[in-house]
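Weekly sync, protein design subgroup
Attendees: M.S., D.O., the rotation student, P.L. (late)

Item 1: inverse folding check
M.S. brought a backbone from last month's batch and wanted to see whether the design step gives back something sensible before we order anything. D.O. pointed out we never logged the input encoding, so this time it goes straight into the notes. Structure tokens as presented (121 positions):
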């Protein structure tokens, strides 16, 4: 019976390709399910054979630990050299977008709080 190895929610193309390559290198049979058109499911990478699942989990765990260290180092370097996107850099680059998003958040919060405010009065 197939087992889900990796839910593809928030998985970038580079990570997806790295994981597929890793599984292929270790001769682990896998297949991909595509995301649903309505956004209900995000697709996934599945292992075809039950006995391969523990070995695949170990490989993915080691890969994700290495990737985490690499991504944190890249982020720290980007922050140090000023190329990382921060709130301040986004505000300077796209002030209209930031203001609209903040206004939208305020409107959403007001709509959520409106029933409570009406019940008090």
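Designed sequence read out in the meeting:
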């Amino acid at each position: 019976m197939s087992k889900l190895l990796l839910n593809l929610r928030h998985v970038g193309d580079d990570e997806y390709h790295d994981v597929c390559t890793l599984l292929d290198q270790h001769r682990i049979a896998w297949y991909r399910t595509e995301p649903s058109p309505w956004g209900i499911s995000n697709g996934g990478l599945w292992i075809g054979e039950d006995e391969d699942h523990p070995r695949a989990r170990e490989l993915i765990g080691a890969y994700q630990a290495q990737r985490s260290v690499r991504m944190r180092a890249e982020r720290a370097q980007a922050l140090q050299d000023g190329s990382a996107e921060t709130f301040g850099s986004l505000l300077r680059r796209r002030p209209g977008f930031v203001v609209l998003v903040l206004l939208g958040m305020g409107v959403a919060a007001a709509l959520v709080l409106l029933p409570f405010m009406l019940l008090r009065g």
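Discussion: The chain has four helices and three strands. The chain has a mean pLDDT of 92.
Action: P.L. to compare against the previous round before Friday.
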